[in-house]
Amino acid sequence: MSAVSSAAASLRAVTTAIDLDQPLIPLADPRHPLVFVRRGEGVVGFGEALRLEFAGAERMREAASAWKSLVERASVTDPVGVAGSGLIAFGTFAFSAQSSATSTLIVPRLVVGRRGDAAWLTRIDIADMRLDGGTASAAQPIDDLADAEAVNRALSPAPWGHPVKLALDAGTPTASGYLAAVTEAVQRIHDGALSKVVLARTLTGELPADADLRRVIAALALGYPDCHTYAVDGLIGSSPETLVRVEQGTVSARVLAGSAARGVDQRSDEAAAAALATSTKDLDEHRFAVQSVLAALDPFARALSSDEVPFTLKLPNLWHLATDVEGTLSAGASSLDLIDALHPTAAVAGTPTDTAMRMLAELEGFDRGRYAGPVGWVDADGDGEWAIALRGAQIDSEGRVTAFAGAGIVAESDPEAELAETRMKFKPVVEAFD
Ligand SMILES: C=C(O[C@H]1C=CC=C(C(=O)O)[C@@H]1O)C(=O)O
């Protein structure tokens, strides 16, 4: 791999309609999957035509401007013309400006996608690459890209590897450390320092070198079909929360905050949903999250609308309070501009944002990496789909797995209940690795 300090690459993307009578996830690379799917639709990428890396406070703004200039020089042939066809990059961004985790946009060499009745294959290569300062790397020469063998390989799933079995152990903070952090946060909220802070903890494990990550991704997608199942640069999970989706001038988001465990039978399940829908604590927590999204989108969108009252979203492990937001995008903004404006929402940081960011870093005591940051894809028009990287884990190059889960802490929070909520939020990942 040739890492360079900047690149002015000319990308060429050619999309062709295909017949695809098989699911997307088995097509993914078993070791380095690039996946963003929901309800069987979405995109799977292979290889890397180009990788752009970013860090620090300007990471999303720099990504937006780097992508804009790459697209200006790109040639795109896309007769399919649906969300995800044509030139795309997968992306994952660190939660915090101080994080040591890199934020990256990865342009795959091949993409296979499905949306409604349409299915397509996109081949991407670099027509020209001038080096002139920045941070980018080109994976390898692309002469072989168009070759039929690479395309056939992309459409023929590799044989499945062994089932992945991995027990995740206590990470940072421990359960008792988490209880102490929540107790301290509640005290500071009562003292008036802030209204809400989201506190997370981790679980850790070691993945065997030859693990077939498609097994983990397939388990997540099967178990949580209404969530965005993602895999980008080792970050894997199934998120119920759409940070933002931009498609042909429409902008939408699904805001979640406020959670309750599912009941054990129909009666207790209905009672759990009803209690959540009327809980002042959860409705307050939710209101902060919706307000933060509406305020961030306001400069970029017209006719923003959302329901007055949240609905209860049923997931296999949890009930959530949810609000869908929709509006018309004002000219010029891309989905990368919007993730920059929206992140971090009150659903993953707290209110007010700056105080919450400082407090969560202090009380959690670990680097969140890309957990709770934006994960998704962007296309040549700037349209894209970005989830908040929740209910997931980061797998590093040595196979170390770190899973993350958090809960919104407000004045009425009970530490034991918040700890139990994080256990429920770990469930998708714990079970996918089991
Ligand atoms: C911080 C997480 O969830 C957020 C999203 C939905 C509901 C949340 C809650 O009820 O606390 C959290 O704000 C997580 O899953 O790690």
Automatic annotation (TrEMBL):
The enzyme's E.C. designation: 5.4.4.2
Catalytically driven reaction(s): chorismate = isochorismate
Transmembrane helix is among the record's keywords: no
The keyword Isomerase appears for this protein: yes
SUPFAM superfamilies, per the entry: ADC synthase
Molecular functions per Gene Ontology: isochorismate synthase activity
Domain annotation Chorismate-utilising enzyme C-terminal: ranges: 176-425
Key words, A-Z: Isomerase
Protein family per UniProt: Belongs to the isochorismate synthase family.
Name of this chain's protein: isochorismate synthase
Species of the source: Ruicaihuangia caeni
